[in-house]
Design a protein that fits this description.
This protein is of the alpha+beta class. It has a single domain, classed as P-loop containing nucleotide triphosphate hydrolases (Rossmann fold). It is about 15% helix and about 35% strand. The protein is built from two helices and four strands; from the N terminus they run ββαββα. The protein has a four-stranded antiparallel β-sheet, with helices on one face.
Length: about 80
Amino acid sequence: MICLENVCKEFDGTRKVTALDGINLHINRGEMVSIVGPSGSGKSTLLNLIGTLTPPTSGSIQIDGQAIDSLGDAPLTR
């Protein structure tokens, strides 16, 4: 199961950009999901967070009940 609770992602540059704000998402094992939306809506950012390629600015992400921020590098690379 993949569980996102109040996940936010911001990027700093010449100005702060909020890509995701307060996302709640639960995906059960075996469930098929599609992520659709217009360009710039945060689809790739969401997938990068779920894939543990980038950490959220705030909120929590759990995969199979394990918070990804509590995992070391070794479990994340499997």
